[in-house]
Amino acid sequence: MKRENGAPIGVFDSGVGGLTVAREIMRQIPNEKIIYFGDTARVPYGSKSKETVTRFSRQIVRFLQSFQVKTIVVACNTASAYALDELEKETDIPIIGVVKPGAKTAVQVTRNGKIGVIATEATIGSRIYSKYIQELNENVTIYGKACPLFVPLVEEGLWQDPVTDEIAKRYLTELIDIDIDTLILGCTHYPLIRSTLGRIMGEKVTLVNPAYETARELRELLDKKGILNEEPPELGDNQYQFYVSDGAEKFKQFANSIIKYGILSTKTVNIEQY
Ligand code: DGL
Question: Domain check: are 163 and 32 in the same one?
Answer without folding.
Answer: no
